Every structure is written in C-alpha cells, then in structure tokens.
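COURSE: Structural Biology Practicum
ASSIGNMENT: Worksheet 4, Part C
STUDENT ID: 0417
INSTRUCTIONS: Below are two proteins. For each, the amino acid sequence is given first, followed by its structure token string. Answer the questions at the end about the second protein only.

PROTEIN I
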Amino acid sequence: MYQPESREQLKQRHQQLRQQRRIRVITSVWRFTCTLGIVAGLGWAIGQPDWTISQPEQIRIEGNQYLSDATVRSMLAIPYPKLIMELAPAQLATQLVERSAVANVKIDRGVLPPHLIVQIQDFPPVARIMQTQTTHAQIFIDERGLQLPISSYRPAVWRNLPTLQLRLPAQGTCSKWPQLYQAMRTSPVAIGIVDCRNPQNLILQTELGTVRLGAIGDKSRLDRQMQQLDRLRNWQQHTLPEVEQLDLDNPDSPEFQLKRSTPAPSQVIEPTP
C-alpha cells in the first residue's frame, strides 16, 4: 500500500534535484569553456607561420617527367605567404590546367608540416619555334600547344631536343596545332619545318621538298594528306626527282610543280592507291 513521503523526505529529494541541476550547469559551462578554448587555440595555431605556405619549396611536384619543379610551381601563382586552409586544391588544379595545358592534375594539402602535393602529367617539347628579329630565346612547344623557354624543362630534356621547327604568325599561335601535330607524328616522311604563318596556306618543308597543304582542315582531311604524302614518297624519288613543290590542298587530286629548269610547270599526280 502506497505511503506518502514525509516532509523530511520531500526536502531531501528537492535538495538532491537542486544539486543535480547545479552539477549539470557546471558541467555544461565547463564543456563550453573547453570547446571555446580548443577552437581559440586552433585558430591561434593556424594563424602562426608554421601553418602557412610561405615559399615555393613547400609545394612538392610529382609525376613531371619534362617540366622542372620550379616551372610547375610558378604556374600555380600562389601569393606567398598563404594560410594552407585558405588554399582550395580543386581551384588550384583547374587554374593549373588552364595556364599550362598539363593533364590529370591532382592537388592535396598536407599539414605536418604544411605543404601541397601537386601531381601532374606533362608532355615533352615536340618543336622549336623559329626565332624572329625580336625573339632570341629558344622557345619550344609541346603537342598541346604550351610554349615555354628551354629553361622551363629538366636538364635531361635538353640533351634530346626536337629537330622539328615551327614558324608562327604574328599572333604567336598556330591554329589547330594539336591535331596538326598528331597527324604529322605518324607520317614516315621526314618533316623539318612547319610554316603556319598563313593559316590559309600551311607549308611543310620535308624530305620530298616543299609541300603545300592549304588551310588546316579537320582530322580526317589532315590524315588523308599525310597518307597521300607517304604514297608520293617512293614515286617522286624514283620517277620525278626534280619536283619543287607538292600541292596537297586537295588530297584526292595532288599536284606537283617542277623546278624551273624543267619545261613543264606543273602536272597532276595520279599515284597508285
């Protein structure tokens, strides 16, 4: 049978409840103070020099076979010093691709000690840009169109520089260079100079002599021009060695121009398919 509590028991119970509430309040205040202290401590620590990227050497470059570490670091354009937590790896990777045409860029942050890890895939130089009267430094171009001085590459690259030369128009770029180079690289005909100065009249200096391709077309047309050039190689060497220029503007109906000492100025070539 239920018996009501006495006044003394009720008083003790109320005291216990007040004490429990007091303990909970003190515990909450203590937890809040500790959390605030930890956050403040972390904020202070992060603001110290040991948590900043203050020099290029704190950026570790991986995967680069041709470009020097210093070249890749300069392409990141990080304003030093910079808190490591303020650096956005994804944004830096996007900027690096846009500025350098390198591929497969991945950037990670490290905090002990603060550093960046930059992983890239780079490309070798494939042609030397022929100098103008105002250009004296040796500038090279890779298959994606990135133009850099020779000093931007690793010393090992200097010992195996490409022999292909490229003449550029005044604006300093060759239209559709990546697909043009991809078509030429598979050709067995040796090509020494690519003249892009007139986008509507692409000229190649080859082992067969001067070859005119006309305006740079799409991949299919370039491939047909290179295939026709290969077919004409043995034909010219054994049949008509006095050719001055081959015209492959229309790869399905190539023409040649004889040297001036030869009476006929031009003829249409009908090589064996």
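PROTEIN II
(use this one for the questions)
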Amino acid sequence: MSQVFIFSACWRTGSTLIQRFLNTSDDLLIWGEPNYLLPFHNAFTKSVAHFKAVEWQHTSLEELGFQKAWIPVLNPKSQQLLEGYRAFFNTTYGGQLAQYGKRRWGFKEVRQNAYQHAEMMKTLFPDCKIIFHYRNPYEVYESLLSTDFHQSFNDPYQPIRFWANNMKDFIDTAKIERLGAIVIAHEDFVDEVKSMSEMEKVASFAGVKLTTTMVETLHHKVGGTSSQVGLEANVVNKIDQVISGTLGQELSEKVMSLFAKPKLAEG
C-alpha cells in the first residue's frame, strides 16, 4: 500500500485543498505538515552516511571476534537504520488509520528543500507517490500579506526565496522523472476547464477512485469567498528581483515564463 506525499513550493499555495481532496477518498489519509523534516533530513543524511562508513567493522568483527576487533564505532548495518526510520513513520502515521476508516497514509509538507525531503521519503518507501505542487508567486505573496503568519518572517520576502529554490527543482524534468513524481499547478487544479482532468490525474496517481464527494470538495473551495485586490507595482518588482537574485537570470526567466504578470492594486 503506497504512501502519498505532497510537497508544495511555499505556504499559501493551496496544498490543503489537495490534502482535503484526497482525504475524502475512501482509503487515503493525508496528514498535515510535520514541521520537523528539515532537522530530520539532516539527521537522516548524517546517520545513514555514518552507518555506511563504518559497516566494514562488521567484517572485522566476523574475522577477529569481540576480543580483537576494533569496535568503538560499531553500529548496526545501514539497512537496519533505514528499517528503523521506516518503522518510525509507519508507527507515527499509520497507527490511527483504522480510527478514521483508512488503509493508507501520507502527509503534506510546505517548507524549503522539498525535493531533498521527497528523495528521503522515496528512499524509505520506494513505492510511494510524490506530488509536487506550486502556485503563482504573486498570488502566494498576496495571500501571505492577508495573514498574521506573514508577520513571523524576519524578511518579508523569505517565503518567495523558499518558493524559488523549490521551483528550480519542480521544473527539472530529469529530477521529477527520477522520483516518478508528478507536478501540479494550483491554477490548473482549480480552473473551471482543467480541474476535472487535473482531479482525475491526481486521483489516478495517488491510487484512489475519484468520487462525487471529492469533486464536490474541490468545487466548494473554488467557490470560496477569497478575493484579490492586487499588488503594488513596487512589490511586484521586488518579487521579481528576489526570484532573479535567488535563481539567476536564465533560470529565473525559465521559471517565471509559467506565470502571467499579476493584477496591480488600484490607486
């Protein structure tokens, strides 16, 4: 039973909509953001590298025994470490499935280093499904401005830098194919013309049957009460500068070719 992981480029991208959409399926439970993957990934990377580096001590131990073998950093083999990490995730996220009438689990995450985190989950769960998800950066920023959450950043454009760093991986076809992932644009997912085919794409990829309830969930959100008043021209220019400064001119132009310029605030 494959897990499903959603990695969004930034906050305020509509990742909760995809989470809710999949959670109304019959057997899949997508949990919310773990908020620990950054330090967890660091520990994962260091520990796996260390365990692999000292695996030779098992050969020494087999040849010389405990009396003579050099064993100050003797650790279980790296495969055992991976099994331990799998057990952590399966126990943490699989333990309450029956309570909600589900058989499979996953989670969504909205942080920097999305691709590296996806690689980690693919290492632990080779059959898992990875969904990368993004939204127009101007709409992301306008949405952030409307929340208290935006006040928590020391630099108000830090989320845009996170977005840019994730997007450089999301548009890298070779990287996406390497993980067998799909990439979903929020705008397509909620578009009146494209939404049905996008819903079918996501449902099929996640291995769930598209139901009327799932469709209604999406349409309910599309018909929400959120409104856009536009961004000031200087803010749009600053967003462009931040993305260009983060990615470089050539890559920035490639990424931004996916998006139209935003509506500007009146007055």
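ANSWER KEY EXCERPT:
Q1: The longest strand covers residues 104-109.
Q2: The beta strands are 4-8, 28-31, 104-109, 129-134, 182-185.
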